C-alpha cells in the first residue's frame, strides 16, 4: 500500500491518484490537518517490537505495516482546537502534537518520497548551495544576511544592477518576487535588519531551467523567461503555462549526474531544481525545492512526471509488499 500524505487543495493529488489507479496500486490519502482529533495516530512500542496505526476520518484504523512507500506532499499543519480557549494552553497543545507527529512519521519503516526530515533540511537555502557546489554544480556568488553593512558591501563589490535579492519563501499571502538591486533597493538596505535576505549575483540567462528529478529520471524543461516583460521571475506569469513558453530540453551528462548526486546526498527521491542556462552555455544552479510543483511544466511540455512519480511509489512499495487488489481510500 502507498500512503499519500497530502490534501484536496493540492492540485497534484487527483492526477497522482488516477495514475496509481491505472497502475493497479493500492493507495490511501491522509490529510494531516485532521490531526490530532478527526484523524489520530497510535504508536505502541515494547520489548517485542512496534505497532503503528492511523485512525482515518472514516473511523477505520490503518495498520501501517501494510504500507511500503509514502509520498510526503506538502502536508497541512493541524489547526488550533477551538475547545482550547487559553492561548498558552493552545501553544502547549500544538507543541505536543508536533512532538508526537514528527517522531511518528520519521519512525515509519517505509520508503518515503521523500523522508520528512530530509525535506526539511534540503529546503534550507544555506544548506543547498554548499551541497550543490560539492556535487559539482556551478553556483552564483550569494550572501544571506540581516546586516545592512554586509549587504551594502556585497552590492558594492558586484555593482548596482548586478545583484538580485529574493525571499526564502513566497506565498499568496506574502508574495515576494525576485528583484534586481538598483539605487532604490540599495537605499532601503537598512531594512534587512527586520528579516534576513538572500542577495545573489545576477546570472545572465539564455533560458531558465526547471529540472524535475523523480528517482533516477530527470525531466528538464526550458522556460523562455527572457521573452517576458519581467524576465527575472517567470513565476509572475504562470497560469498553468499561459503566457510562458516552455519546451522540453536536455542537460549535459555531467550536470545530470551532479544533480542526481546532490539529491542522493540530501536523502531525496524527488526534487524540483531551478537553474539558468547562460548565453555562453553554462548551467548555473539556483535552488532545489524538495516538494516543488511540476504540474505547471507537465501541462505545457507533456513530460510524464506524474506517471514517473506513480511508478516510483509503486516500485518502492513492491520492494516490501506483493501487489494486491487496488483499493483507493481517502480521509
Automatic annotation (TrEMBL):
<dbReference type="InterPro" id="IPR011761">
    <property type="entry name" value="ATP-grasp"/>
</dbReference>
<dbReference type="GO" id="GO:0005737">
    <property type="term" value="C:cytoplasm"/>
</dbReference>
<protein>
    <submittedName>
        <fullName>ATP-grasp ribosomal peptide maturase</fullName>
    </submittedName>
</protein>
<dbReference type="Pfam" id="PF08443">
    <property type="entry name" value="RimK"/>
</dbReference>
<keyword id="KW-0547">Nucleotide-binding</keyword>
<dbReference type="GO" id="GO:0005524">
    <property type="term" value="F:ATP binding"/>
</dbReference>
<dbReference type="InterPro" id="IPR013651">
    <property type="entry name" value="ATP-grasp_RimK-type"/>
</dbReference>
<dbReference type="GO" id="GO:0046872">
    <property type="term" value="F:metal ion binding"/>
</dbReference>
<dbReference type="GO" id="GO:0009432">
    <property type="term" value="P:SOS response"/>
</dbReference>
<feature type="domain" description="ATP-grasp">
    <location>
        <begin position="129"/>
        <end position="314"/>
    </location>
</feature>
<keyword id="KW-0067">ATP-binding</keyword>
<dbReference type="GO" id="GO:0018169">
    <property type="term" value="F:ribosomal S6-glutamic acid ligase activity"/>
</dbReference>
Amino acid at each position: 500500500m502507498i500512503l499519500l500524505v497530502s490534501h484536496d487543495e493540492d492540485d497534484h493529488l487527483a492526477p497522482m491518484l488516477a495514475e496509481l489507479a491505472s497502475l493497479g496500486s493500492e493507495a490511501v490519502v491522509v490529510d494531516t490537518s485532521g490531526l490530532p482529533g478527526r484523524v489520530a495516530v497510535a504508536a505502541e512500542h515494547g520489548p517485542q517490537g512496534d505497532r503503528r496505526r492511523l485512525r482515518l476520518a472514516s473511523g477505520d484504523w490503518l495498520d501501517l505495516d501494510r504500507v511500503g512507500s509514502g509520498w510526503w506532499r506538502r502536508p497541512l499543519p493541524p489547526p488550533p482546537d477551538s475547545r482550547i480557549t487559553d492561548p498558552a494552553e493552545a501553544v502547549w497543545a500544538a507543541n505536543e502534537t508536533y512532538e508526537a507527529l514528527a517522531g511518528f512519521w520519521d519512525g515509519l519503516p517505509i520508503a518515503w518520497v521523500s523522508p520528512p526530515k530530509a525535506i526539511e533540511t534540503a529546503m534550507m537555502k544555506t544548506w543547498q548551495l554548499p551541497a550543490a557546489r560539492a556535487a559539482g554544480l556551478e553556483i552564483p556568488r550569494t550572501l544571506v544576511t540581516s546586516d545592512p553593512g554586509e549587504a551594502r558591501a556585497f552590492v558594492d563589490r558586484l555593482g548596482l544592477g548586478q545583484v538580485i535579492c529574493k525571499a526564502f519563501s513566497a506565498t499568496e499571502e506574502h508574495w515576494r518576487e525576485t528583484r534586481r538591486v538598483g539605487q532604490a533597493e540599495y537605499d532601503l538596505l537598512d531594512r534587512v535588519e527586520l528579516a534576513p535576505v538572500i542577495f545573489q549575483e545576477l546570472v545572465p540567462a539564455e533560458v531558465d531551467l526547471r529540472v524535475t528529478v523523480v528517482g533516477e529520471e530527470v525531466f528538464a524543461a526550458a522556460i523562455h523567461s527572457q521573452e517576458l516583460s519581467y524576465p527575472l521571475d517567470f513565476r509572475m506569469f504562470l497560469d498553468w503555462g499561459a503566457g510562458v513558453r516552455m519546451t522540453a530540453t536536455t542537460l549535459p551528462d555531467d550536470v545530470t549526474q551532479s544533480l542526481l548526486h546532490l539529491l542522493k546526498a540530501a536523502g531525496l527521491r524527488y526534487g524540483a531544481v531551478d537553474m539558468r542556462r547562460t548565453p555562453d552555455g553554462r548551467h548555473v544552479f539556483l535552488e532545489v525545492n524538495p516538494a516543488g510543483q511540476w504540474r505547471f511544466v507537465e501541462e505545457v511540455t507533456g513530460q510524464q512526471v506524474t506517471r514517473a512519480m506513480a511508478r516510483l511509489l509503486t516500485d518502492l512499495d513492491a520492494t516490501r509488499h506483493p501487489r494486491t487488489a487496488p483499493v483507493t481510500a481517502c480521509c
